[in-house]
Specification:
With 54 residues, this protein is of the alpha+beta class. It has one helix spanning 21-27, and strands at residues 35-40, 45-50. The protein has a two-stranded antiparallel sheet.
Length: 54
Amino acid sequence: MKEMIFKDGKIQKGYRVKIPKAIVDTLGLKEGQGVEIKFDLAKNKLTLEIKDAE
């Protein structure tokens, strides 16, 4: 698995999920594309799963 580290990010709170532009560009995500975000509390790990556009 490749790892990408994005430094100098800022924590933002709100009702919408915002994904940093650098990640959107790297993954080739399109506006409105479905994603599932999972957070493993035991491992303190965040996972972004990309849903295929139907």
